[in-house]
Amino acid sequence: MAKFNAQTLKKSILRGLGLEKHSKYVSDYFYDANMKASIYMSIVVIVLEVWMLVRTTVTLIRKDMMDKFGLYFEKYYINYIILLTAGVVMFVFALRYVLGKTERKWLGILIKWAFSAICIYFGIKISMQDYQKGEQILTFLTMELFVVCLLTWRPWVGFSILTSSYLIFFTILSRMEAHNTGEVGLTLATQINGFTMWLSTLLFCISNYNKTLSQALKDESLEEVNSHLSRISVEDELTGIHNMLYFRSEAEKLLNYVTTDKDNVVFLFFDIENFKSYNEKYGFHKGNELLKQAAHMIVDAYPNSLVSRFSDDHFVVLTHKEGCKEAAEKLSEQINALQNEVHLQLKCGAYQPTADESDPSLACDRARFACNTIKKHFDNFFRYYDKTLEDKFQMKQYIVNSIDNAIANGHIKVYYQPVVSTRTGEIVGLEALARWIDPRYGILPPGAFIEILEEYRQIHKLDICMIESVCRDYREAVEKGEVFVPVSLNFSRLDFELCDIVGELDKRAVKYKVPRDFLDVEITESVLNDQHDLLQRAMSRLRELGYKVWLDDFGCGYSSMNVLKDYSFDVLKIDMNFLSGFDENPKTKLIINNIVALTKEIDMVSLTEGVETREQFEFLASINCDRAQGFLFSKPVPLEKLRERAAEGELKFSEEFRSVQV
């Protein structure tokens, strides 16, 4: 604290004396202020001196004293002319500077000092003559006010000017004979008045300086803010290259220029693959440094081109088609050289706009789409957007643009796949799976739209629609007196980010009066590695409300045991891949047997998916796996189809749940 106070005191003293160092902006501010003040000051001086010259000349003529012109010239005219000349020089230079016709600041400073010195000299000279005649020393005081108060000086400079000029003037007066008393020296009244004027003028000088300094600092701060805002409006804050706002604006202009050769224009989209792992390994600081390096490598690789950071570790370039792939190949080698223990690879998608296209955003999207198709393909780093990709891209755009209408018009349907008890062979559950029955493309399987909706962060719309449909099916079944079994719903990890999915589930359960133990939630094992805290809270809330939580696709990841240790589940769903080598691989049965035994030990229900043969089902029953699911029983179909098969005796719904239906 003492150190802080000492530093604050030192800073205050330096500022009070005007000894602190000014920034270039503040120095320029003071200079500009003095140049503007010099215009007004010099105008006043010019007018006064012209008036004095005219007045003196008229007086000489009227009183027929022209024979004394030489005496008056030496005594008065020369001083008026010198000050008038200085005023004119100051006025001309200051006006030219304000109008932007000269930038020689050193010359302006020199003229300002010379003008100030001449003004003070004039004040001393004229007031000495007035004092001898018994008149007031107003000219000296006026010139002091002009110089020290109209212009802005650092306090120590103002003090020096005032003190030196007052000392010189009053020293001269002290040797002169006072006209009114005949005594040599200064009267007490003159000394007191002189000191009072000196002090008042000095205080005004200090006040004027501090006021100007405060305004300069305020303006500098605003200038920095405006400069920052202007910079970030066109510049990426991290890498220093252009941002997408600037890119889109300039790219659109280029595409619309009649001189642009679109046959030789290409949009490139770059993605540093595995950058997320690099961040996790070395931290965000190192990751940011890598992004900066990569950004400037791309700028260097494509000179005279439009380069921008798209987002995260993605960059876009608008450049000439010729040589773009070769430059991308060199860039890829440079990025590879930056890696340490984490393998980095630069991927590049390219799109060449057609003659009538002028939308940079669409061009970037297509280049990005091309880039995404070669991710995880380590033998390919460059891909052009072509007709094959065009069809896929159009489908992607269609899905993103049509999801809201599809939900509103009932094109999203729930298909159910039964979950069967290995003990009774009866249906004890259903998994709800989405199907998009599109009027244009027909039936769209989940693989055609799930990942796209996740990429564009619209997956929660689909999942909320699924919740609504399942709850509605339950209510309709109950009102018809039909049996209904618990249904499991698949939630995306993004559901927990994009909305309150637990609240949406519970709201519809209440709306349709669905018992909470009739709605189960499946969470994929891989999801749990991304957002531990968020999902932990959501799962706890689900179980507190009375919903069962399933672990889906158990065994497809590398951290299955940790997941069981860190989270609480009601049902463990064994991944279908375990049954893929059922007949050939003797380890398969042993592994499944041990997993099922583990579920018994930790009080979970076991369910194996992907059951396709009677032999597989009988094996699962023999090791006491509780439930099974697969094409052996049924592929996913509408609920009405399941009921038809049940009516025909092919399937049977368990009656154990009928008593709890309300």
In percent, how helical is the residue content? Answer: 55-70%
Q: Characterize the overall form.
A: elongated
Q: What's the quaternary structure here?
A: single chain
Evaluate the radius of gyration. 44 Å
- What would you give as the CATH superfamily of the largest domain? EAL domain
> What low-confidence regions span 5 or more consecutive residues with pLDDT below 50?
none
CATH topology of the largest domain: TIM Barrel
Bin the strand percentage: 5-15%
- Kindly report how far apart the N and C termini lie: 71 Å
State the total count of DSSP E strands.
14
Contiguous helical run count: 22
- Main β-sheet description: 8 strands, mixed, barrel
Q: Decide which structural class fits the backbone.
A: alpha/beta
- What is the strand arrangement across the widest sheet? 6-7-9-10-11-12-13-14
Q: What is the correct CATH architecture of the largest domain?
A: Alpha-Beta Barrel
Indicate the mean pLDDT.
Answer: 87
Domain GGDEF: 263-387
GO molecular function: cyclic-guanylate-specific phosphodiesterase activity
InterPro entries: Cyclic-di-GMP_PDE-like (IPR050706), EAL_dom (IPR001633), EAL_sf (IPR035919), GGDEF_dom (IPR000160), Nucleotide_cyclase (IPR029787), Rev_trsase/Diguanyl_cyclase (IPR043128)
Transmembrane segments: 37-56, 77-99, 105-124, 159-176, 188-209
